[in-house]
Amino acid sequence: MTDVSKAEIAEPILRLRGIGRRFGGLHAVRDVDLDVAHGERRAILGPNGAGKTTLFNVISGDVGPSSGTIDFLGEDVSVLPPRARAKLGMGRTYQKSRSFLGMTVEDNLYLAVLGTRSGHFRPISLRKRDGEMRDRARELADAVGLGGRFGELVGSLSHGEQRQLEVGMARASNPHLMMLDEPASGLSRGERVALTELLLSLDPAITLILIEHDMDVALRVADRVTMMHDGRVIVEGTPDEIRANQTVHDLYLGRGNHSDV
Predict the structure, then answer these.
(1) Which of the pair, 202 or 252, is modelled with greater confidence?
(2) Higher per-residue pLDDT: 202 or 254
(3) How far is the C-alpha of 193 from the C-alpha of 160, rounded, in Å?
(4) Where are the alpha helices (DSSP H) in the chain?
(5) Torsional class of 71: left (φ above 0), alpha (ψ -120 to 50), beta (otherwise)
(6) Domain boundaries in the chain?
(7) What span, in angstroms and rounded, lies between the C-alpha atoms of 173 and 171?
C-alpha cells in the first residue's frame, strides 16, 4: 500500500456526489451522496433491486455513472476505467466467483499479483520477480487462512474457502479500498463465522465497503451502515442506530427474516 499523507487521511477516501445510473428507463441508482473515511468499515444494505451492486459497479468503473462524480483519494475518477482505479488502490470481489477452478490456489493468487505489476520484465530479473510474486501469493494465502491449501485446485475448495480466496485476490494490489460484493452469500453458518473473523482481522488501514444480505455479518463488521431502497440512500447510521431504526424494521426486518437485508 502506498503512503497516504495526514492531510489526505483527514478527507474521505471515497466521496460520491449525485451519483445516478440509468439503464434505459430504469433508474438503478438515484442521486447518491456518500462519504467513506480512511480505515472505515462500511456496509451497504438493502433488498434485492435496491441498487447496491450497480452502485459498486459505478464506484469500481465496471459501468459509468449517468450523473454525478466520484472522488477517490482526492482525485476525480468518474471516467477512469477499472484498471486505472485498481492501480490507484481499489480492489473488489464480485457476486459470482472470478477465480479459475481448474488452477491451484497458488496460481490464482500468483495471477492476481501479476495483474498488479506494470512494465516489462527483463530476462535477467524475471526469475527474481517471479519468486517475489510467488512469495507474495504465499503471504496472501496465509493471510486468508488458505496456507494449507496452497497447492490444491480451487475447484476442490469449499464455497467458503473460495470466498476466502477471492478476498486474498482482492488484496493482491495492497489496496487502500477493498469492496466485497455479498461475501457471505451461500455460506454455511460455520463458514459465515470464519469469514466474519477474516474480515475483522483485516489491516485497519484498509478501508472496507461490503454489500451483504446477512445482517449478523454486516452489523458485526461495519462501523457505519448505509441502507438503500429503490436506488436511493434512505438511512445511514451506526449498527446500533440501524438496529433501532423504525424505517429499517418496517421495510426489511418486519419480513421475519433478519438476514435478508
Answers:
(1) 202
(2) 202
(3) 10
(4) 6-10, 52-60, 82-88, 105-116, 123-143, 159-170, 189-200, 215-221, 239-244, 246-251
(5) beta
(6) 1-89+176-261, 98-173
(7) 6
* Contact by Cβ (8 Å): 220, 207: no
How far is Cα of residue 194 from the mean position of the Cα atoms in its chain?
17
Residue 63, C-beta contacts closer than 8 angstroms, at least 6 positions apart = 21, 54, 57
Residue 256's pLDDT is 41
Dump pLDDT digits (tens) for 12-29. 999 999 999 999 999 999
* Residue carrying the nine cell digits 499479483: 113
Task: Please give the Cα distance from 112 to 106 (Å, whole number).
Answer: 10
Q: Which triple of cell numbers denotes residue 159?
A: 464455497
Q: Is residue 164 pLDDT above 50, yes or no? A: yes
Residue type at position 69: T
φ and ψ at residue 137, rounded to 5 degrees: -60, -40
Antiparallel, parallel or unpaired: β 232-237 and 207-211: unpaired
- Domain 1-89+176-261, CATH among 3.40.50.300, 3.20.20.70, 3.20.20.450, 3.40.50.2300: 3.40.50.300
Nearest of 148, 164, 242 to residue 198 by alpha carbon: 164
Kindly report the number of other CB atoms within 10 A of residue 213's CB atom: 18
Are the CB atoms for 192 and 220 separated by under 8 Å? no
Backbone conformation region of residue 38, classed left if phi is above 0, alpha if psi is from -120 to 50, else beta: beta
Is residue 166 within 8 A of residue 184, CB to CB? The reply is no
Q: What is the pLDDT of residues 107-145, one digit of tens each?
A: 999 999 988 775 544 444 455 678 899 999 999 999 999
Angstrom distance (rounded) from CA 187 to CA 114 = 29
CB 179 within 8 A of CB 209: yes
